[in-house]
Amino acid sequence: MAPAPSPPALETRDLTIRFGGHVAVDAVNCAFHPGTLTAIVGPNGAGKTTYFNLISGQLRPTDGQVLVRGEDVTGLTAAARTRRGLGRAFQLTNLFPGLTVRENIRLVVQSRRGAGMDLLSRAARRTDLVDEADAVLARMSLAGRRDDLAGALPHGDQRKLEVAMLAALEPDVFMFDEPTAGMSVDEVPTILDLIRRIKETTDKTVLLVEHKMDVVRQLADRIIVLHNGALVADGEPAEVIASPIVQEAYLGGAIEHA
Amino acid sequence: MTAPAPAAAPAKGAAMARSSAPRSRLLSAVLVLIFAGLALAPFVFPGSQSLNVAAKICYFIVLAASFDLLLGYTGIVSFAHTMFFGIGGYGAAISLYALAPDWTSLAIGTLAALVVSVLLALLIGLFSLRVRAIFFAMITLAVASAFAILASQLGWLTGGEDGRTFRVPELLRPGTRLMDGTLFGVQINGRLAAYYLVYASMVLLFVTMLRVVNSPFGSVLQAIRENDFRAEAIGYRTVVYRVVINCIAAAMATLAGVLCAVWLRYTGPGTTLSFDIMLDILLIVVIGGMGTLYGAVIGATLFLLAESYLQSLMGAFSAATAGLPVLPQLFHPDRWLLWLGVLFILSVYFFPSGIVGRLRGR
User: Fold this and answer.
1) Are A38 and A223 in contact (CB under 8 A)?
2) pLDDT recorded at residue A251
3) CB distance B5–A152 less than 8 Å?
4) In terms of CA atoms, which chain B residue is nearest residue A56?
5) Taking 60 as the threshold, does the pLDDT of residue A254 lie above it?
6) Largest Cα–Cα distance of chain A, in whole Å?
7) Which of A100, A144, A155 sits opposite B15 (nearest CB)?
8) B144 has pLDDT over 60
9) Are B223 and A107 in contact (CB under 8 A)?
């Protein structure tokens, strides 16, 4: 991979957040380039989700900056960052439970198209939005569920819908936070296929928090390791997994107890 | 999530136009009955008391439906809705009283009221809709109380506690005869014209609100109600949407206030600004079914019919059971509020999703 020209799709500089005396994310410097998939690994409580929250704007850092294509977005709201191309799927499913599956997706398409302030047409007749939503649902094999309320879906389908909402957003930077957590084995491939397709057919930037090492090995171009909020390793998957610091900080513990 | 929910029932056939249609045959029938009943009210239920009730139902439908835009669709709790209703009422009253009793003054009063309402709603919204819901509720409560005090203090302008009685444009005056003789035994006079003005405006405003909630904008409101965190995360500036709907709801309530003033030919604190009215609309929306708009229609109709006729119904019942123990006292007309309260508790208990929710089978 040639070094990317000009600014990275996403960059964090000295990104830090403290909760009282506890440093949850500790001066993380990292850049993410288009066309790469970076896996973020680390033990529970290492600060992975907090790092995501700082990037996508759910939390404000104590210190440091978030840059999207070189532009400082640290002071912007989550909505403003989304409109600048950051997209996020949540670890804990985060849907519009009282709306139908199709409406959940249509709302995302509508946001991307900037049609939210349309007061005059009928939402159900905006075929441009509805058809695109249906296409996303078909791709995620959720078409049969499209008229069900999101809150009434089985857990696996809710996870799929969560990821489908991110897919419908078509951001420049995809942030997946344990997308396959709690899914049954036969549902996992749908999600992994989606991520693989994004990685292989587009020039998007993908960030993936994932615990399953086999998944990480399959998909990642690069692994970064967080430990106690700090970035402790960064590099090619094989190299990072083999590094002593990872063996000790993360994998080592798991193997010893296995 | 402990146990995964059981697989949901297969998609219902009518889900295509999910939010726009009544989606229940019984509900559609009830709505047709109400709208037709109101359209024909002067002829089917002649008499000035029933016409008063019908007109009040009309402008309360607009008032309650506009409150539902906030409470039911967006999840905003506001206690300032009667303030906007009052601004409409006073706008029409002051203009018709101080200028001339003609259409121009009515238009000026309405426009001025709309401007004041929307600006106030914008201000309140910008200052408090970005913070927690409870804070917004408290702010609206404070502003509404301040406004009610102001309205009663500025006697030279508003008529103080007595309010303002004024003349309406000539077409709408009771003395105006529009036709010689009668039609189906009813005099075709200015009162009738006023009623149909109120009715037609109600239909127009109600359809406009339906249009708003079924638009892409309306679906964002529902997304905010369902999960404002996620709405923000997929790129919607939720504060902007909240402020805009706050202004739209205020404008609608203002127009309802104008209709009220035109119908009553009077505006006072008791008919527009009182906190009792605020509670009434809250009950109407909750009983009818939040987040449906149709709930406001059914709720307003039931509530105002109960308010107007429960007392006399109980009087009749009490008289009929005069010989029996306890019953006559229990159903004495003075106890009507007690029974209204019991009816509310029962309806909220048995129809937690409101009457519309019940009719839709949810």
Assistant:
1) yes
2) 56
3) yes
4) B233
5) no
6) 63
7) A100
8) yes
9) yes
Confidence check on the interface: ipTM exceeds 0.85, yes or no: yes
pLDDT tens string B244-277: 999 999 999 999 999 999 999 999 999 999 999 9
All structural domains of chain A, each given as residue ranges with its CATH number in brackets, are 10-94+170-257 (3.40.50.300)
Parallel, antiparallel, or unpaired: how do β-strands A173-177 and A10-19 relate? unpaired
- Chain A, residues 144-173, CB within 8 A of chain B, namely 144-149, 151-156, 165, 169
Q: Give the pLDDT mean for B226-255.
A: 96
Nearest alpha carbon to residue B66 among B293, B358, B351: B293
pLDDT, one tens digit per residue, over B32-59 is 999 999 999 999 998 889 999 999 999 9
For B11, which of A97, A129, A148 is closest by C-beta distance?
A: A148
Please check whether residue B128 is in contact with residue B135, taking contact to mean a CB–CB distance below 8 angstroms: yes
Chain A residues near residue B237 by CB distance under 8 angstroms? 77, 79-80
pLDDT recorded at residue B199: 98
* Cβ contacts of B8 on chain A, cutoff 8 Å: 145, 148-149, 152-153
Q: Please give the Cα distance from B197 to B258 (Å, whole number).
A: 11
Cβ–Cβ under 8 Å, residues A55 and A10: yes
Out of A94, A121, A152, the one facing B8 most closely (by C-beta) is A152
B15 sits in the region (left: phi over 0; alpha: psi -120 to 50; else beta) called alpha
C-alpha distances (whole Å) from A150 to each of A188, B12, B236 are 19, 14, 19
Tens-digit pLDDT profile for residues B167-203: 999 899 888 888 877 788 788 889 999 999 999 999 9
The number of beta carbons lying within 10 Å of the beta carbon of residue A37 is 23
Of residues A78, A111, A154, nearest to B7 (C-beta): A154
Q: How far apart are CA B250 and CA B352, in angstroms?
A: 27
**Least confident window among A122-131, A221-230, B20-29:** B20-29
Other beta carbons within 10 angstroms of residue A92's beta carbon come to 11
Angstrom distance (rounded) from CA B223 to CA B225:
5
Q: What is the pLDDT of residue A1?
A: 53
